[in-house]
Each structure stands twice: as C-alpha cells, then as structure tokens.
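I hope you will forgive my troubling you with a question about protein structure. I should value your view on which stretches of the chain appear to form regular backbone elements. Here, with my thanks, is the record as I have it:
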Amino acid sequence: MRADERRLEIVRKGFEETFGAGRELMYFSAPGRTEIGGNHTDHQQGRVLAAAVNLDMLAAVAFNDDGVIRMQSEGFRLCEVALKDLSVEERLYGTTLSLIRGMAAELQKRGAKLRGFDAYVISDVLRGSGLSSSAAYEVLVGTIINELMNEGKANAVEIAQIGQIAENVYFGKPCGLMDQMASSVGNLVTIDFADKANPVVEKIDFDFSTSGYTLCIIDSGADHADLTDEYAAVPGELKKVCAVFGKSVLREIPEEEFMKRIPEVRKAAGDRAVMRAFHVYADNQRVVKQCEALKNNDFDTFLTLVRQSGESSWMYLQNVIPAGYKEHQEMALALALCGKLLNGQGAYRVHGGGFAGTIQAFVPNRMVDEFVEGMEAVLGEGSCHCLSIRAEGGVRVK
C-alpha cells in the first residue's frame, strides 16, 4: 500500500509536537468500512457483505521504555494505558482507553510480548457516517501490537475477532463482527454468522475500480437522537417472531415453516414484525447472489440486487422513516433525491441501521459531478462523499 505523503508528514509532525523529535517512527493504517449487502441481517445470524473504504486512521508509532501505551488522536485527549494491569474495569466502559486495554490484553493472551509505545493518530473516517471509526481504531491498535510485538502471528480475521472482544467485554458494548472484519481484512468481505462463535469469512476478489462506478455515502442530515426505541424495535419484533417457533433468531427457522405459520405470527408479533422477517429472509439470499455476481464480474446484476435490498429495507424492514415523523423525513427525502438524480442508473439504498445517518449510492462515473452537485444543493455542502473500495485492511505502511 502506498501512503499519502502529505498525510504522513501531518502525522509525523503531530507525533513530534506531542512526544518529541529524534525517534525512529513506524506508520500504520486501518480503514473505515461500509455495509454493501445484508441490512439488519447480522443480528439474526445471517449473511452480510461489507467493504473497506479509502478513508482511514493513520498512526505514527515509536517504542518507549515506560511500559505504557500512549495514543494521541488529533483533536482528542491523550490516552495512557499502563501495561502492568490490563484487566476489565467497568469504570472505563465506553472509553477509548478500554478499547486499547482490550486489544493489548487479548493479544497478550495469544502470545504477544507487550512493550510500551507512543502513537499519534489522524483520521479521515467520517464520524457518525456508518463507516465505523471505532472498528478502524480497534484494528489500528491491533495491527500495531501484532506487527511490532507478535511477529505478525495473528491473521486479519483473528485481529477482527479480538476487536469484537475488546468492544464487547472491555468497552461494554454488544456488537457484531462485521465492522471489525471489513476493516481488518480489506477489500470486499462476506461473512456468514450461522455459527456466531465461528463465523465463515470469505474475501471477495473484485476490483471495484474497473466497475465504472463511484461509491457515494450521503449524509441525510437526520439526527440519531431519540431513535433508540426505533433501532431496538427491529430485533425486538423479530425476537417475538422467533418465540412463536421456540427459536432465538430467524436463521434457525426455515422460511417455508415461517410462511406456513404467518397467521399465527401476526397474532403474536404483529404485521410489521412479519414484514421485517420478509426482509431478513430475502436480504440473506441477496448477499449470496451479490457475491456470485461480483465473482463473475457481473456488476449489472450486483446493482440490481443493491436496488432490491434498498427497496426491501424501505418497504419491509421499514427503517427509513421513524414512527410518527411527518415534517422531518430526511432519510426518505435523500433516497428520493437519489432516485431522481440517477434516473434509473446505478443503485442506492439505506446504509447501516437506518432511520437517520447516511445512505449509499453507486453512481456511474460520468454522472458523479452532476450527482454530487444535485445532492449537495439540497442537503448542504459536504454532504456527499465519493469513496472507493480499499484493497488492504489493517497494515504497516512504512
């Protein structure tokens, strides 16, 4: 991977201003990620398709002799973690310190010989965009420790799994594995969570740069505040569906059996829960078809499946317009605007959790300038971000 010399210079200066000059520096990078297929399927032990993007966290690193990890992220407070005690501490739940402790502790359990180091970190991963800056940070820390103190013995999948442990156990936040896996492995990656303890991970070798399309992430301007109940209702309603069958997730229930018992499910869980189950079953199968299309370099079929996923999310999963919203329908407006501007070309869909945040569009290269101008004329300058798929996951760049 070739690093941007301008950003390398920025991170070098940041390190020297924070920790002093005259030390041998090493440079590491971990990318953000985007969900490509499988909207809200992971919490039902389903399938997902995700990708690393060309926005990353970049760190300049040097060893110290203090037995302490010091990480200074641009614009944030210095984080200091003493290596002599890396136990889980509830008082640190929800903090960056807990993520560093978790990554270090779990790699130490796997044989890493920990040493203190100083790191200065810059990031162009868009916060709150669904590109998962937290996963990029975990993979960055894990890659630094693995390369410098573990002889690179942990592979990309293991680093992702350690990141999930750090977030679940040390940070105190239940999360899936999609974010960390996409950031750590790089390029396009599909994950099957049928066995959640041992997910099946496959890297999809497809050169997105040859597709003739640009990946755009668009900020709808909608606020996540006060939407906790909306997000919780999706797995909550599906749990009620599963209870009818004595199961915990939809993946354990054959679709044919679900279809036969819809009248019973409606009474127990309600109509919206049935609709949401329709979406999960269909999107699981779409992920398989998307991967096949990419492997066969059939990008037209892939785009058709993206459009179908977006329509399913809006119509069946219903994670575009929060319940009771009338005047404020930012996500719906952004999606409708995509449809107008693309005029049957490319594809677009809700991105991530939905209800607020971002949407995703695959825009023909010849239409990108007009598309960005049209989106930002309505949603504001800087609301449309043009990205590309990054081939590498967490890496040492220099």
